[in-house]
Amino acid sequence: MTAWTWRFEKADGTQVAPAVPPEEFTTQGDAESWIGENWKALQEGGADQVRLLEDGTEIYGPMSLHADGTTAAESETADEGA
Fold first, then answer.
1. From the CB of residue 58, how many other CB atoms can be counted at a distance below 10 Å?
2. Where residue 70 falls among pLDDT bands split at 50, 70, 90?
3. CA 44, CA 2: separation in Å to the nearest integer?
4. Phi first, then psi: what are they for 63, rounded to 5°?
5. Those residues with Cβ within 8 angstroms of residue 53's Cβ, 6 or more apart along the chain or in another chain
6. pLDDT tens digits, residue range 12-34?
7. Alpha-carbon distance 3 to 54, whole Å?
């Protein structure tokens, strides 16, 4: 059976533990629905981006968890320049 999972990362690609317990999903749609429901808690818990994996093979990513698509580091840099 195919397993869809998420990898949770900081902006630099370092893997981090998610704030919400991750699951294995049987479909890509289920995995994407879950991230849609949990992205904010994951982002608030320290993850900046995610990658979707199918049986350990990356399907896409990194995908930002920040609403405007920037990472926390990019937001801090922009704030310093203002």
1. 11
2. low
3. 29
4. -115, 125
5. 4, 5, 6, 7, 59
6. 999 999 999 999 999 999 999 99
7. 6
| Residue 5, Cβ density class (10 Å: 0-12 exposed, 13-18 middle, ≥19 buried) | middle
- CA 23 to the chain's CA centroid: 13
**How far is Cα 27 from Cα 18, in angstroms, rounded to an integer?**
20
Nearest to 22 by CA among 9, 33, 35: 35
Phi/psi of residue 8, nearest 5 degrees: -105, 130
Q: How far apart are CA 50 and CA 56, in angstroms?
A: 14
**β-bridge partners, 52:** 6, 60
